[in-house]
Amino acid sequence: MTIRHHELLSPTPGTTQSLVSLHYGQPGRGPKVLVQASLHADETPGMLVAQHLRQRLDALQAEGRVRGEVVLLPAANPIGLHQWLHGQHHGRFELAGGENFNRGYTDLTDTVIAAVQGRLGSDATANLATVRAALREAVAALPVATTLDSLRRLLLGLACDADLVLDLHCDGEAALHLYTTPACWPALQPLAGYLGARAVLLAERSGGDPFDEACSMLWPALSERLGPVSPLPPQPSLAVTVELRGQNDVAHAVAADDAQAILHYLALREVLDLPAAPVPPLQCAATPLAGSMPIVAPHGGVVVFAREPGETVQAGDLMAELIDPITGHTTPLHAPTSGVFYARSNSRYTRAGGRLGKVAGAEALRHGRLLSP
Question: Where in the sequence is the signal peptide annotated (predicted)?
């Protein structure tokens, strides 16, 4: 294993931050995989899963069982790791500018198209190599004005030519669930089976330009723009956001199981020289992200949930009670659609307009930006 330190743009004189990446296998010998943990730096479960992956990958490399290249980012957000305010860790938004760490990744489709015009032929594999080289150059040329810009460029640079990108996150309190695109989903179904995902949310474009879509969504756009005379392999880069339950689901036994599930999937994709484990049956059907309906608080108050994450509910089921502690008035909150109650807030006090939970429904009912800010 090789450890690399990538220095970020210094925000102020006398301060430095760096991103650490762990590299297993040999570049170019097989599929490339990037696994990154805790881009939202206060979402801790991913870092523990990465620790278990690191231990297993160390052993597998020593045994010569890493066929491809695995890049592991055990803590993908050094900026967010040190953001503490009045004793509380704040890792979702950059405090300096208020930006979400998992939004605003550049769509490089136009830049790559301009770079490869006239250089592609009828061989899809050769075209892929040319396009990936142009993509690496485009990422390297991205302008950097802030420390966050430099982090985004580093992360995209490590991931842009990967065959598989696993972005490990979590929710407040949740069942394990995935976000990906319809084009990626068929190849990712075994991963959902190994992980025991209770919800899979699909969107062509979710809005906000999150990291996983920056890695996967330019490929369908490139294929459409280049046309059949300059073919590319179908969806050469898979990317998925893996939501590892809730923020407090940090336990060795759970993390070890999640790491093993990921290793099973890497073996299935021939990244690791291991027997492929049988794929468990899926625990859910994939549903549109536009069908994920929020439970919204009409006023502030104390939240008492009536259902647990992972439960299947019907539209109209009681999901929570919202109690105004001043007046004593209780407002029942009901399921906005039928489906899986896959995530809820980890706070038991809310303000008016607060989002308290999400139900994954089969019918696309929302439009526009589908992700929270």
Answer: none
| pLDDT tens digits, 283-337 | 999 999 999 999 999 999 999 999 999 999 999 999 999 999 999 999 999 999 9
Q: Which domains does the chain have, with CATH numbers?
A: 2-284 (3.40.630.10), 289-361 (2.40.50.100)
Which stretch of DSSP H or E encloses residue 240?
A: strand 238-246
Identify whether the C-beta of residue 333 lies closer than 8 Å to the C-beta of residue 294: no
CA-to-CA separations, 191 to 194, 199, 249, 313, 336, in angstroms, rounded = 5, 12, 20, 25, 29
The token duo for 277 is 């484990």
User: What interhelical angle do 109-116 and 218-226 show, nearest 10?
Assistant: 40
Determine the residue type at 6. H
- Cα separation, 213 vs 181, in Å, equals 8
Query: What are the respective helix, strand and coil percentages of the chain, to the nearest 5?
Result: 30, 25, 45
Instruction: List residues bridging with 321 in a β-sheet.
Output: 304, 332
CA distance 257 to 49: 9
With left for phi above 0 and alpha for psi between -120 and 50, is residue 187 left, alpha or beta?
alpha
d(CA 93, CA 371): 14
Burial (Cβ within 10 Å: 0-12, 13-18, ≥19) of residue 213? buried
Spatial neighbors of 342 by CB under 8 A, at least 6 apart, are 174, 175, 177, 198, 199, 292, 309, 310, 358, 359, 360
Average pLDDT taken over every residue of the chain:
97
Q: What is the pTM of this model?
A: 0.97
Residue 104 to residue 146: CA distance in whole angstroms: 13
